[in-house]
C-alpha cells in the first residue's frame, strides 16, 4: 500500500502543478488577445483620422545636416547616413517617426528621429540630405515646415 500511496501522491502533485500553471497562464493569453484587438482598432482609427493629422502638428523651420556630419555617431548610437530618411529634434523621443511637410510646395516625407539638436525659440528639425532633397529645399538651406509626430 505504501507504493500505491506514493504513486497517488505524485499523480496528485503533478495534476495540481499543471492546474496551477494553466491558471497562471490563462490571464496572460487573454491579455495578449485584448491587445491584438486594440492594435487592430488603432490601425483603423489612424486611417480615418489621417486628414485630421494634416492640420495637427507644429509649424517650424527645417534645415539639413552639413556634410561634415557624414559617418559620425548620432545620439542614438547609429552612424549618420545622408542617404537615409532620418532627423534630429531637441525634444521628441529617439525612434519617433515624424511626418514633415514643406509648406512652400506641400511635399512631405516621413523620417525617424535618431539624433538631438540644439533647442531654439521656434520649433526646429534637422533633416538628412535625402529628406531635404525629397522636400525640395536643398538650394534654400531652410524651409518652413509642419512637424507631425506619428503614432
Could you explain the architecture of this structure?
With 151 residues, the protein is an alpha/beta fold. It is 40% helix and 24% strand. The chain has three helices and six strands. It has a six-stranded mixed beta barrel. The longest helix is centred in the N-terminal third of the chain and has 47 residues. The protein is elongated and about 90 Å long. About 8% of the residues have low confidence.
Overview features:
single chain; 151 residues; alpha/beta; Barwin-like endoglucanases; 2 domains; 3 helices; 24% strand
Order of helices and strands: HHEEEEEHE
Strand order of the largest sheet: 1-5-2-4-3-6
Helix content: 25-40%
Write out the CATH superfamily name of the largest domain. RlpA-like domain
Question: Averaged pLDDT, please?
Answer: 79
Overall form: elongated
Q: Quickly count the domains.
A: 2
Q: Summarize the biggest pleated sheet.
A: 6 strands, mixed, barrel
Number of helices: 3
Ends: how far apart? 66 Å
Amino acid at each position: 500500500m505504501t507504493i500505491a500511496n506514493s504513486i497517488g501522491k505524485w499523480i496528485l502533485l503533478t495534476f495540481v502543478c499543471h492546474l496551477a500553471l494553466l491558471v497562471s497562464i490563462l490571464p496572460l493569453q487573454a491579455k495578449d488577445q485584448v491587445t491584438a484587438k486594440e492594435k487592430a482598432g488603432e490601425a483603423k482609427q489612424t486611417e480615418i483620422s489621417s486628414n485630421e493629422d494634416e492640420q495637427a502638428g507644429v509649424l517650424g523651420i527645417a534645415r539639413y545636416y552639413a556634410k561634415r556630419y557624414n559617418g559620425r555617431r548620432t545620439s542614438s548610437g547609429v552612424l549618420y547616413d545622408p542617404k537615409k530618411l532620418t532627423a534630429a529634434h531637441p525634444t521628441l523621443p529617439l525612434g519617433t517617426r515624424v511626418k514633415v511637410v514643406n509648406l512652400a510646395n506641400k511635399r512631405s516625407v516621413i523620417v525617424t528621429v535618431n539624433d538631438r539638436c540644439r533647442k531654439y525659440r521656434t520649433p526646429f528639425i534637422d533633416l538628412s540630405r535625402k529628406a531635404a532633397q525629397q522636400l525640395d529645399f536643398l538650394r534654400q538651406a531652410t524651409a518652413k515646415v509642419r512637424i507631425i509626430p506619428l503614432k
